Amino acid sequence: MTTRHFLADDDLSAAEYKQLLARAAELKKLQKNGALHHTCAGKAMAMVFEKSSTRTRISFETGMFQLGGHALYLSSRDTQLGRGEPVEDTARVLSEMVDIVMIRTFAHRTVETMAETGTIPVINGLTDEFHPCQLLADMQTWFDNRGDIQGATVAWVGDGNNMCNSYIRAARLLDFNLVIACPEGFEPAERRESDGNRIRVVRDPREAAQGADLIATDVWASMGQEDDAKARNLALASFCVDDNVMNESKKDSLFMHCLPAHRGEEVSASVIDGDRSIVWEQAGNRLHAQKALVEFLLHA
Ligand code: CP
Ligand code: NVA
Protein backbone atom coordinates (compact mmCIF):
# COMPACT_ATOMS: atom_id res chain seq x y z
CA MET A 1 0.00 0.00 0.00
CA THR A 2 1.48 3.40 -0.93
CA THR A 3 1.62 6.01 1.76
CA ARG A 4 -0.51 9.06 0.91
CA HIS A 5 0.62 12.58 1.74
CA PHE A 6 -0.97 16.03 1.65
CA LEU A 7 1.81 18.37 0.57
CA ALA A 8 -0.19 20.43 -1.91
CA ASP A 9 -3.89 20.84 -2.63
CA ASP A 10 -3.94 18.49 -5.61
CA ASP A 11 -2.45 15.53 -3.75
CA LEU A 12 -6.15 14.61 -3.48
CA SER A 13 -8.30 14.00 -6.55
CA ALA A 14 -11.36 16.23 -6.92
CA ALA A 15 -13.56 13.31 -5.86
CA GLU A 16 -11.43 12.62 -2.77
CA TYR A 17 -11.40 16.33 -1.91
CA LYS A 18 -15.19 16.53 -2.00
CA GLN A 19 -15.57 13.26 -0.12
CA LEU A 20 -13.29 14.68 2.55
CA LEU A 21 -15.34 17.89 2.78
CA ALA A 22 -18.49 15.81 3.23
CA ARG A 23 -16.81 13.85 6.03
CA ALA A 24 -15.64 17.12 7.60
CA ALA A 25 -19.27 18.28 7.73
CA GLU A 26 -20.25 14.98 9.42
CA LEU A 27 -17.40 15.29 11.93
CA LYS A 28 -18.49 18.85 12.69
CA LYS A 29 -22.00 17.61 13.50
CA LEU A 30 -20.68 14.79 15.69
CA GLN A 31 -18.49 17.26 17.56
CA LYS A 32 -21.30 19.79 18.02
CA ASN A 33 -23.61 17.02 19.28
CA GLY A 34 -21.02 15.82 21.77
CA ALA A 35 -20.83 12.37 20.14
CA LEU A 36 -17.53 10.55 20.67
CA HIS A 37 -15.79 9.58 17.42
CA HIS A 38 -12.51 7.87 18.27
CA THR A 39 -11.69 6.75 14.74
CA CYS A 40 -7.94 7.23 15.25
CA ALA A 41 -7.62 5.69 18.72
CA GLY A 42 -4.04 4.83 19.60
CA LYS A 43 -2.58 6.94 16.76
CA ALA A 44 0.04 9.62 17.37
CA MET A 45 0.83 12.72 15.31
CA ALA A 46 4.12 14.62 15.42
CA MET A 47 3.56 18.34 14.75
CA VAL A 48 6.83 19.97 13.67
CA PHE A 49 6.75 23.76 13.76
CA GLU A 50 9.57 25.87 12.31
CA LYS A 51 7.25 28.91 12.21
CA SER A 52 4.68 30.34 14.63
CA SER A 53 1.07 29.19 14.71
CA THR A 54 -2.18 29.64 16.58
CA ARG A 55 -4.86 27.96 14.43
CA THR A 56 -2.80 25.16 12.89
CA ARG A 57 -1.40 23.95 16.17
CA ILE A 58 -4.67 24.18 18.08
CA SER A 59 -6.74 22.54 15.35
CA PHE A 60 -4.40 19.59 14.82
CA GLU A 61 -3.78 19.05 18.53
CA THR A 62 -7.46 19.27 19.44
CA GLY A 63 -8.43 17.26 16.38
CA MET A 64 -6.14 14.35 17.29
CA PHE A 65 -7.55 14.38 20.83
CA GLN A 66 -11.12 14.30 19.53
CA LEU A 67 -10.26 11.40 17.21
CA GLY A 68 -8.97 9.45 20.21
CA GLY A 69 -5.31 9.91 19.28
CA HIS A 70 -2.47 12.05 20.53
CA ALA A 71 -0.47 14.97 19.10
CA LEU A 72 3.05 16.07 20.06
CA TYR A 73 4.09 19.70 19.58
CA LEU A 74 7.69 19.78 18.35
CA SER A 75 9.23 23.21 17.91
CA SER A 76 12.43 23.24 15.89
CA ARG A 77 13.87 25.38 18.70
CA ASP A 78 13.55 22.51 21.17
CA THR A 79 14.35 19.53 18.95
CA GLN A 80 17.57 18.41 17.32
CA LEU A 81 16.22 19.72 13.98
CA GLY A 82 17.05 23.19 15.27
CA ARG A 83 20.62 22.04 15.96
CA GLY A 84 21.13 20.73 12.45
CA GLU A 85 19.90 17.12 12.56
CA PRO A 86 18.98 16.38 8.93
CA VAL A 87 15.31 16.32 8.03
CA GLU A 88 15.89 12.89 6.44
CA ASP A 89 17.07 11.43 9.76
CA THR A 90 14.22 13.11 11.59
CA ALA A 91 11.74 11.60 9.11
CA ARG A 92 13.16 8.09 9.65
CA VAL A 93 13.02 8.44 13.44
CA LEU A 94 9.48 9.86 13.43
CA SER A 95 8.39 6.96 11.21
CA GLU A 96 9.55 4.52 13.89
CA MET A 97 7.55 6.20 16.65
CA VAL A 98 4.46 8.02 15.40
CA ASP A 99 1.80 7.34 12.76
CA ILE A 100 1.57 10.66 10.95
CA VAL A 101 3.50 13.93 10.81
CA MET A 102 2.41 17.51 10.21
CA ILE A 103 5.13 20.02 9.42
CA ARG A 104 5.12 23.81 9.08
CA THR A 105 8.34 25.10 7.60
CA PHE A 106 9.98 27.48 5.10
CA ALA A 107 11.19 25.57 2.01
CA HIS A 108 8.58 23.35 0.38
CA ARG A 109 11.41 20.93 -0.42
CA THR A 110 11.61 20.13 3.32
CA VAL A 111 8.10 18.63 3.41
CA GLU A 112 8.84 16.72 0.20
CA THR A 113 12.05 15.34 1.73
CA MET A 114 10.12 14.32 4.84
CA ALA A 115 7.62 12.45 2.65
CA GLU A 116 10.29 10.84 0.47
CA THR A 117 12.42 9.67 3.38
CA GLY A 118 9.88 8.62 5.98
CA THR A 119 7.28 5.88 5.74
CA ILE A 120 4.30 7.67 7.31
CA PRO A 121 1.84 10.22 5.86
CA VAL A 122 3.10 13.82 5.83
CA ILE A 123 0.80 16.85 6.01
CA ASN A 124 1.96 20.28 4.91
CA GLY A 125 0.94 22.67 7.68
CA LEU A 126 2.23 25.63 5.58
CA THR A 127 5.37 26.23 3.57
CA ASP A 128 6.55 29.33 1.71
CA GLU A 129 4.83 27.83 -1.35
CA PHE A 130 1.51 26.33 -0.21
CA HIS A 131 -1.02 26.24 2.64
CA PRO A 132 -3.32 23.36 1.60
CA CYS A 133 -4.84 22.73 5.05
CA GLN A 134 -6.18 26.29 5.08
CA LEU A 135 -7.72 25.75 1.65
CA LEU A 136 -9.50 22.64 2.91
CA ALA A 137 -11.11 24.76 5.64
CA ASP A 138 -11.92 27.55 3.18
CA MET A 139 -13.57 25.07 0.83
CA GLN A 140 -15.51 23.44 3.68
CA THR A 141 -16.75 26.88 4.67
CA TRP A 142 -17.80 27.64 1.08
CA PHE A 143 -19.48 24.25 0.56
CA ASP A 144 -21.36 24.54 3.87
CA ASN A 145 -22.64 28.02 3.03
CA ARG A 146 -23.12 27.91 -0.73
CA GLY A 147 -22.71 24.34 -2.04
CA ASP A 148 -20.27 23.26 -4.74
CA ILE A 149 -17.75 25.90 -5.80
CA GLN A 150 -17.58 24.71 -9.41
CA GLY A 151 -18.15 27.66 -11.73
CA ALA A 152 -18.03 30.26 -8.95
CA THR A 153 -15.64 33.23 -9.11
CA VAL A 154 -13.13 33.92 -6.36
CA ALA A 155 -11.21 37.19 -6.15
CA TRP A 156 -7.83 37.01 -4.45
CA VAL A 157 -6.60 40.48 -3.47
CA GLY A 158 -3.05 41.29 -2.33
CA ASP A 159 0.12 39.25 -2.24
CA GLY A 160 0.55 36.29 -4.59
CA ASN A 161 1.80 34.18 -1.69
CA ASN A 162 1.48 30.59 -0.38
CA MET A 163 -2.28 31.02 0.15
CA CYS A 164 -2.71 32.39 -3.36
CA ASN A 165 -0.73 29.44 -4.79
CA SER A 166 -3.02 27.05 -2.93
CA TYR A 167 -6.08 28.90 -4.28
CA ILE A 168 -4.65 28.37 -7.78
CA ARG A 169 -4.25 24.61 -7.23
CA ALA A 170 -7.76 24.44 -5.75
CA ALA A 171 -9.23 26.41 -8.68
CA ARG A 172 -7.80 23.90 -11.15
CA LEU A 173 -8.91 20.93 -9.06
CA LEU A 174 -12.43 22.10 -8.16
CA ASP A 175 -13.06 24.02 -11.37
CA PHE A 176 -13.70 27.57 -10.15
CA ASN A 177 -12.54 30.89 -11.59
CA LEU A 178 -9.89 32.90 -9.82
CA VAL A 179 -9.09 36.55 -10.42
CA ILE A 180 -5.95 37.71 -8.63
CA ALA A 181 -5.34 41.42 -8.00
CA CYS A 182 -1.71 42.11 -7.11
CA PRO A 183 0.94 44.71 -7.90
CA GLU A 184 3.68 43.96 -10.41
CA GLY A 185 6.33 41.80 -8.79
CA PHE A 186 3.82 40.14 -6.43
CA GLU A 187 2.41 37.59 -8.86
CA PRO A 188 1.94 34.02 -7.59
CA ALA A 189 4.69 31.63 -8.70
CA GLU A 190 2.08 28.96 -9.36
CA ARG A 191 0.26 30.81 -12.17
CA ARG A 192 0.74 29.20 -15.63
CA GLU A 193 -0.05 30.50 -19.12
CA SER A 194 -1.98 27.26 -19.63
CA ASP A 195 -4.48 28.37 -16.94
CA GLY A 196 -5.89 30.75 -19.55
CA ASN A 197 -8.93 32.73 -18.46
CA ARG A 198 -9.73 30.45 -15.50
CA ILE A 199 -6.97 32.14 -13.50
CA ARG A 200 -6.36 35.80 -14.36
CA VAL A 201 -4.06 38.42 -12.89
CA VAL A 202 -5.24 42.05 -12.81
CA ARG A 203 -3.81 45.17 -11.17
CA ASP A 204 -6.96 46.69 -9.67
CA PRO A 205 -8.67 45.10 -6.65
CA ARG A 206 -12.04 46.56 -7.70
CA GLU A 207 -11.72 44.98 -11.12
CA ALA A 208 -10.90 41.59 -9.52
CA ALA A 209 -13.93 41.87 -7.26
CA GLN A 210 -16.40 42.64 -10.09
CA GLY A 211 -19.07 39.93 -9.98
CA ALA A 212 -17.05 37.78 -7.55
CA ASP A 213 -18.79 35.29 -5.25
CA LEU A 214 -15.96 35.16 -2.73
CA ILE A 215 -13.25 37.71 -1.87
CA ALA A 216 -10.17 36.40 -0.05
CA THR A 217 -6.99 38.01 1.14
CA ASP A 218 -4.03 37.46 3.46
CA VAL A 219 -1.23 39.40 5.14
CA TRP A 220 1.17 41.46 3.04
CA ALA A 221 4.27 40.14 4.82
CA SER A 222 4.23 36.40 5.39
CA MET A 223 6.29 34.62 8.03
CA GLY A 224 9.94 34.95 7.03
CA GLN A 225 9.36 38.28 5.22
CA GLU A 226 9.29 40.46 8.34
CA ASP A 227 12.43 42.39 7.32
CA ASP A 228 10.76 43.52 4.08
CA ALA A 229 7.46 44.42 5.72
CA LYS A 230 7.83 48.20 5.25
CA ALA A 231 8.56 47.98 1.53
CA ARG A 232 5.85 45.38 1.01
CA ASN A 233 3.26 47.48 2.85
CA LEU A 234 4.12 50.41 0.59
CA ALA A 235 3.86 48.37 -2.60
CA LEU A 236 0.54 46.80 -1.54
CA ALA A 237 -1.01 49.93 0.01
CA SER A 238 -3.78 50.21 -2.62
CA PHE A 239 -4.74 46.51 -2.30
CA CYS A 240 -6.80 46.73 0.88
CA VAL A 241 -10.11 44.85 0.78
CA ASP A 242 -12.41 47.65 1.91
CA ASP A 243 -16.09 48.45 1.33
CA ASN A 244 -15.33 49.90 -2.11
CA VAL A 245 -13.83 46.58 -3.17
CA MET A 246 -16.62 44.50 -1.59
CA ASN A 247 -19.25 46.70 -3.27
CA GLU A 248 -18.00 45.56 -6.68
CA SER A 249 -18.70 41.91 -5.84
CA LYS A 250 -22.04 40.08 -5.95
CA LYS A 251 -24.66 41.16 -3.39
CA ASP A 252 -24.42 37.82 -1.58
CA SER A 253 -20.62 37.53 -1.78
CA LEU A 254 -18.61 36.30 1.18
CA PHE A 255 -15.27 37.43 2.62
CA MET A 256 -12.54 35.09 3.87
CA HIS A 257 -9.13 35.62 5.48
CA CYS A 258 -6.94 32.78 6.75
CA LEU A 259 -5.86 34.95 9.72
CA PRO A 260 -3.97 36.45 11.46
CA ALA A 261 -5.33 39.71 10.01
CA HIS A 262 -4.05 43.28 10.06
CA ARG A 263 -7.03 45.62 10.09
CA GLY A 264 -6.27 48.76 8.08
CA GLU A 265 -3.70 46.98 5.93
CA GLU A 266 -4.91 44.08 3.75
CA VAL A 267 -8.50 44.40 5.03
CA SER A 268 -10.57 47.17 6.59
CA ALA A 269 -12.18 46.58 9.98
CA SER A 270 -15.57 47.26 8.37
CA VAL A 271 -15.11 44.26 6.04
CA ILE A 272 -13.53 41.69 8.34
CA ASP A 273 -15.94 42.54 11.16
CA GLY A 274 -18.86 43.06 8.79
CA ASP A 275 -21.87 40.99 7.65
CA ARG A 276 -20.24 39.22 4.72
CA SER A 277 -17.19 38.06 6.64
CA ILE A 278 -17.18 34.39 7.64
CA VAL A 279 -13.63 34.33 9.01
CA TRP A 280 -14.49 32.82 12.41
CA GLU A 281 -16.42 29.93 10.90
CA GLN A 282 -13.54 29.55 8.41
CA ALA A 283 -11.00 29.38 11.26
CA GLY A 284 -13.18 26.89 13.16
CA ASN A 285 -13.42 24.64 10.13
CA ARG A 286 -9.66 24.05 10.30
CA LEU A 287 -10.53 21.60 13.08
CA HIS A 288 -13.14 19.61 11.19
CA ALA A 289 -11.49 19.61 7.75
CA GLN A 290 -8.16 18.45 9.17
CA LYS A 291 -9.80 15.72 11.23
CA ALA A 292 -11.28 14.39 7.99
CA LEU A 293 -7.84 14.67 6.38
CA VAL A 294 -6.10 12.78 9.20
CA GLU A 295 -8.73 10.02 9.13
CA PHE A 296 -8.32 9.76 5.37
CA LEU A 297 -4.51 9.56 5.45
CA LEU A 298 -4.39 7.12 8.39
CA HIS A 299 -6.93 4.81 6.83
CA ALA A 300 -5.86 5.18 3.19
N1 CP B 1 -4.27 30.44 9.21
C1 CP B 1 -3.28 29.84 9.90
O1 CP B 1 -2.61 28.89 9.40
O2 CP B 1 -3.09 30.32 11.15
P1 CP B 1 -1.88 30.02 12.12
O3 CP B 1 -0.64 30.64 11.50
O4 CP B 1 -2.26 30.67 13.41
O5 CP B 1 -1.70 28.54 12.26
N1 NVA C 1 0.80 33.86 4.15
C1 NVA C 1 0.84 33.75 5.58
C2 NVA C 1 -0.21 32.79 6.05
C3 NVA C 1 -0.30 32.66 7.53
C4 NVA C 1 -1.30 31.64 7.96
C5 NVA C 1 2.22 33.31 6.03
O1 NVA C 1 2.82 32.45 5.37
O2 NVA C 1 2.71 33.81 7.04
Describe this structure in words.
This protein has helices at 14-32, 55-66, 87-97, 108-117, 132-146, 162-174, 205-209, 229-235, 243-246, 269-272, 279-299; strands at 44-49, 70-75, 100-104, 122-124, 153-157, 177-181, 199-202, 214-217, 254-257. By secondary structure, the protein is α/β, with parallel strands linked by helices. The chain has two domains: 9-131 and 283-299, Rossmann fold; 134-278, Rossmann fold. The strands form two sheets. The protein has a five-stranded parallel beta sheet with strand order 7-6-5-8-9. It has a four-stranded parallel beta sheet with strand order 2-1-3-4, with helices on both faces. β5 (153-157), α6 (162-174) and β6 (177-181) form a beta-alpha-beta unit. It is globular. The mean pLDDT is 98. The protein binds phosphoric acid mono(formamide)ester and norvaline. Norvaline binds at residues 126, 131, 161-163, 218-219, 222-223, 258. Norvaline (NVA) binds at residues 126, 131, 161-163, 218-219, 222-223, 258.
